[in-house]
Amino acid sequence: MRMRIVDAFTDRPFAGNPAGVLLFDDVFPDDDWLQNVAMEVNHAETAFAHRLPEGGAADWALRWFTPVAEVAMCGHATLATAHVLHTTGAHQGPVRFATRSGVLIATPATDGSITLDFPTAPLTPVEIPAGVAEALGAQPLAAFDTGPNVGDLLVELADEKTILGLAPDLKSLGAYSSRGIIATAAADDSSRGYDFVSRCFFPNVGIDEDPVTGSAHTALAPHWSARLGRDDLTGLQASRRTGLVRTGLRGGRTLLTGHAVTVVEGELHA
C-alpha cells in the first residue's frame, strides 16, 4: 500500500505541517489499524481516504488521526490529501470530502495552490480562565471559545513578539479546552506578507505544538477579519517550521488556501 508524507501550507520541503496520506479503493480498515498507522507515522495527523460511489454528495470519504486519537476536523491533512489526489491523477478538479465535519471541498488553482472550503468556527467571548496566563507564559487580552468542531480556547496576546517568545507549560494547558490553545496577535508589520500570527498547542491530542493548523484558521479568520475590517487575510503560524494560510471569510464558511509538496513516498507493509 502506497503511503505519502506531504508538507502542507508550504511550497518547499521541510516547512509547513507534515501529514501522512493513505488512499483506499472502497472501505476503511478497522479503527485500531488506522490508529496504529497514525501512531507509526507520528505526525500531527495522518489522513485516510477512500473513494465513494459516483452520483453522491461527496467523492471521497476522509478521516484524520493524530498519534493518539481521531479528530473531528483537520485542515492541513485535508490539503495534503487533495494534493495527493491531484498530483497522482486519482481525482481531477474540485474534490468533495465526506467527513465528521460535513462535506468539505478542496479546489485546485492553476498556480498549484489548493483552497479548502470549511465551516467558520463560532467564536464566543469567555472570561480569561484563571491560571491560563501562568500556563501560557503571557497574559491574554481576550479569550474565546471556538465551538465543538475546533474545540480550542483562542487567546489574543499583546503583540507578535509575545507570540514568538511563548514557552508554555504544556501539561497545564490541557485543562482549558478539549484540544488545546490557539494563541494569536496582530502582525507587527503587515508589509512582510501576513496580517496576523499564531501558535497552536494541543496537548490533549498528543501534539505539543502543531506546526500549521488549518482548522484553527476557521476561528482566526473571523476574529481578525472583524478586527482588521477585511474578509481576505494571510496568517503566519510561527512554529519552528512556519507556514502561511490565506483566509477568506465567507459568512458561515471560511476559505483556507495554501500549497503542498510531497516529500516522501513509499510502501506500507502492515
Describe the structure.
- The chain is of the alpha+beta class and 270 residues long.
- The chain has seven helices and 18 strands.
- The longest helix has 14 residues, at 75-88.
- It is globular, with a radius of gyration of 18 Å.
- The N and C termini lie close together (9 Å).
- This is Oxidoreductase.
Structure keywords:
single chain, 270 residues, alpha+beta, Diaminopimelate Epimerase, Chain A, domain 1, 2 domains, 18-stranded mixed sheet
Lay out the secondary structure:
Blueprint: E1 2-8, E2 17-24, H1 31-41, E3 45-51, E4 60-65, E5 70-71, H2 75-88, E6 95-99, E7 102-108, E8 114-119, E9 124-126, H3 132-136, E10 142-145, H4 147-150, E11 152-156, H5 160-164, H6 170-173, E12 180-186, E13 196-202, E14 207-210, H7 217-228, E15 232-237, E16 243-250, E17 253-258, E18 260-267
Parallel strand pairs: 2-3, 4-6, 11-12, 13-15
Antiparallel strand pairs: 1-2, 1-18, 3-4, 4-5, 6-7, 7-8, 8-17, 9-10, 10-11, 12-13, 13-14, 15-16, 16-17
Write a brief structural summary:
With 270 residues, the protein is of the alpha+beta class. Helices cover 20% and strands 39% of the residues.
List the uncertain runs.
Answer: none
Structural class determined from secondary elements: alpha+beta
Q: Helical segment tally?
A: 7
Q: Tell me, what is the CATH class of the largest domain?
A: Alpha Beta
Query: Shape, please?
Result: globular
- The tally of strands reads 18
CATH topology of the largest domain: Diaminopimelate Epimerase, Chain A, domain 1
Rounded radius of gyration (Å): 18 Å
InterPro entries: Phenazine_PhzF-like
Active site: 45
Protein name: Oxidoreductase
Keywords: Isomerase
